[in-house]
Amino acid sequence: MDVYDNLILYETNDQFLFEPIHDPGNILVIDRLNQEYSFSNGKTHFPSTSKSRSIFGIVGTIRLLAGPYLVVITKRSKAGMVHGQDIWKIEETEILPFAKTILHLNGEQLAENKLFKSMIEHVLNIPHFYFSYTFDLTHSLQRLHKMTPESSQIPLHERADKRFVWNHHLIRDFVGQPQMAKFVLPVMLGFVQTHHCTLNRKKFQYTIISRRCCYRAGTRYFMRGVDQEGQVANYVETEQIVEYQGDKCSFIQTRGSIPIFWSQLPNLKPTIPKAVQGANHLEGLTRHLDFQILNYGKQVILNLINQTGEEGKLEKAFSDVINSFRSPIVKYEAFDFHHECRGMRYDRLGILLDRVGAEQEEYAYFMLLRDGTVVQQQNGVFRTNCIDCLDRTNVLQSLLARKNLQQVFLKLGILSEGQTVEDQQDFENLFKNIWADHADVISIQYSGSGALKTDFTRLGKRTQYGLLRDRLNSLVRLYKNHFSDGFRQDAIDLFLGNYVVEQNRLILRIDRSWKYILLPGILCTATTMAFVALPFPNELSITGILYPLFWSGIAAVAWNLIVDSGPEFIDWPKLVCRHRPLSTA
Q1: CB atoms within 10 A of CB 386
Q2: Is the dihedral of CA 457, 462, 464, 468 positive or negative?
Q3: Which 8-state DSSP code applies to residue 198?
Q4: With CB atoms counted within 10 Å of each terminal CB, which end of the chain scores lower, N or C?
Q5: What is the C-alpha to C-alpha distance for residues 259 and 442, in angstroms, rounded to an integer?
Q6: Is the CB of residue 269 less than 8 Å from the CB of residue 566?
Q7: Where, by residue number, does the polypeptide cross the bilayer (predicted)?
Q8: Which residues, in sequence order, are CB contacts of 448 under 8 Å at separation 6+?
Q9: What is the DSSP letter of 232?
Q10: In a domain, 84, yes or no
Q11: 540-561: per-residue pLDDT in tens?
Q12: Which of 276, 314, 287, 282 minimizes the C-alpha distance to 580?
């Protein structure tokens, strides 16, 4: 069952009315006073005073201190086509209050309500949200093919994969009546790019779809590892699709945080990843892998973290637990990415590709012919992780994807025997840039900055400019992870319904100590005075030297006090208690 693609929204003092342009006889009416949902017979009289505008979908409703708010899509752009169906990207949204006035709130409540609203706006502005009116974007081609023909009559939001429906909390008021199905639009966060390509005068479409899971969603330092249900942080399913003359091939990979209980909470001092002491790591890993096997079949766990130092301790904890799991359909491959590729020798990733080559051949990929015949199915996936599941992970996933393309292009006859993907310069450049764009988007969504190591993904080699860009992105990550990710985590938890706003309860206000208020001011003042007091070479004197040294000393003392009190300066989440510091060892 498709969803309405164009609506006229009428606003009156008492109602929101949604009129489908292509089905004006089915008007959804929302009462702004009692929040009741009903349908008109098409003879509705729209008051001349009502505001009207075109919208492209309803994201849902969210309840804040001032009451419910309606979220609608006001601008979209076409992201491409898959399986002959249009995929759209959300460009702009609008948040509309049900209540015309909010006189019942006091000053503190108004301020908190404004902050809650800004959180919803923040999530909606995360790049990139996608949707389709006619295509179930949350499922891979293989899963879609396994569905029965009757499933096409099931509402789109009901047959969607709940892991990837990011507005599931916002559409809860819309799922009670069958008539509402055509107004309920599942929204996915991730990455979509499609390109029309030509090789050997043969035209085909190349697509990458990445689906971010909403079950353990959050920011880099506040969401790590696995939870009690087996869900992991930064879990992403990535599908590579080739469509040629009606034939379709699909290759799935997954990434996700190391599936044991571990944390790496921010501090102004360097922090290290630590396994949680006393946690039942085997249970968390088992639930995660059971879920993986149920959805994808056999597994190769590719762990790219360092095998020495602090990361090495986490690698040992992970390998010990996964060796206890002992499943014939789960293979563990640890590859010390930084050690093996030191000196910018990224060509050494070929060692790992050779080690898992047999599994890639065995797991295969999904292939559907134009007549509906399934030639083969994918019966296993590579599950890749590094510490953040961003930079190293994306590099390896792009290499596995290219290796799959070699198989697909030969099978479809796009390439001839003896030809390789790497030798097709135009397509190779396109492929590298898509995967580098993919790295940046997934990284921004999780860490707040662009990805590292994308010079290798784009150019096939590491460069000095790439190293400089990586350092800049690392600094941006460092700042955001320490001083703005608490807000981002709260925003995600509010949007997903992990926290539900309670009336008459203020929770976002926080009382800071004198250190938070005074020390940064002293640091800035002392640093400024030290620079201002620097004497010119021809004016050197004892006083001229001691004066900047004095202020430099004050700045150093202030900075050391700030670092020693690091946790007091971190932007901690305030809505969900599970983001508080854990006991680790």
Answers
A1: 24
A2: positive
A3: E
A4: C
A5: 19
A6: yes
A7: 55-73, 516-536, 542-562
A8: 219, 220, 476, 477, 480, 481, 484, 485, 488
A9: B
A10: yes
A11: 567 667 877 888 888 888 888 8
A12: 276
Q: Are residues 175 and 214 in the same domain?
A: no
Asked whether 145 and 375 are in contact (CB, 8 A), the reply is no
Mean pLDDT over residues 297-310, rounded?
Answer: 96
Residue range 569-579: average pLDDT? Answer: 80
What sign does the dihedral 561-562-564-569 (CA atoms) show?
positive
Answer yes or no: do 147 and 241 share one domain. Answer: no
pLDDT of 185 strictly over 60: yes
Q: Are residues 324 and 391 in the same domain?
A: yes
Q: Which domain holds residue 128?
A: 1-184
Cα–Cα nearest to 257, from 227, 291, 297, 279? 227
How big, in percent rounded to 5, are the helix, strand and coil portions of the chain? 40, 25, 35
Domain assignment of residue 67, yes or no: yes
Pair (150, 248) in one structural domain: no
Q: Are 267 and 568 in contact (CB under 8 A)?
A: no
Rounded to whole angstroms, what are the CA distances from 223 to 219, 302, 485, 527? 6, 20, 11, 35
406 in any annotated domain: yes
Tell whether 16 and 98 lie within a shared domain. Answer: yes
Asked whether residue 426 is assigned to any structural domain, the reply reads no
Residue 302 pLDDT exceeds 90? yes
Express each pLDDT in 393-416 by its tens digit: 999 999 999 999 999 999 999 999
Q: Give the CA count within 13 Å in the CB-facing half-sphere of 418.
A: 0
pLDDT of residue 581: 44
Q: What is the dihedral of CA 69, 72, 75, 76, to 10 degrees?
A: 130
My answer on whether 324 and 389 are in the same domain is: yes
